[in-house]
Specification:
Elements: E1 6-9, E2 18-22, H1 39-43, H2 52-55, E3 65-69, H3 117-146, E4 149-157, E5 172-175, H4 184-196, E6 201-203, H5 211-216, E7 223-231, H6 245-263
Parallel strand pairs: 2-3, 2-4, 4-7, 5-6
Antiparallel strand pairs: 1-3, 5-7
Protein name: N-formylglutamate amidohydrolase
Organism: Fulvivirga lutea
Length: about 270
Amino acid sequence: MQIAPYNIIQPIGKRVPMIVSSPHSGVQFPDELKDHYNQQLIATPDDTDWFIHQLYDFAPEMGITMIAGNYSRWVIDLNRNPDSQPLYNDGRIITELCPTKSFAGEEIYKSGKQPKEKEVERRLETYYWPYYQKIQELIDDLKNEFGYVIFWDAHSIRKYVPLIRKDDFPELILGDNEGVTASKKLSDLTLQTLQHRGHQINYNDPFKGGHLTRYFGKPEQNQHALQLEMTKVNYMDDSETEYHKPRASRMRESLSLVFEELINTEL
């Protein structure tokens, strides 16, 4: 039996005008596609934002709605342009809408099983657009109640990914597409709060926010979108394979402070 493309975690108690999205924490593969992949690789798909949904699971207690993708980004990447247009024009390597290689350069499909155009279109309709449609429903519902909404897209990445960047990634990277997807007030508040907590945080460098942030970030329509990318060692062990409770606890405290500030900010 197939599972839904996403999982919704409703807020506990009084809800607030904020949504947390975790598009890359899914590890499932549709039954009809499982045999197309390298079985060893999909047993633990390395490009997953491991445990991100767990790291943020305090959010519903603050009244925040959460949505998480259930399928692996190797089925279809929910944070890529649906027309496969590049998010960046600086020559960096970026995986496709339906990736055929991992971030480590490994072939994830068996020979001849890579998806063709018709299959990509099917995956868009079956797994990709339902995620976007549900987010739009959540946004519309919250805007009807509060007049505005904050969309937070949560991501993680290995500290060192040589095919993407020659140097280690910064601890945290906040993206709003150079101020386009959120009000300056919200971005500044996020940066300042995390800096005061002692975190190293970059702003729009090297990531400016992916397609989800750019698609839903419309400040002129009272929709503010921010993406936070973090290196996995913020909440995982040094091998970047296991959840590390002490590190995660510190990160959760920082995130909860940011969310409290954002929720209480007048726009």
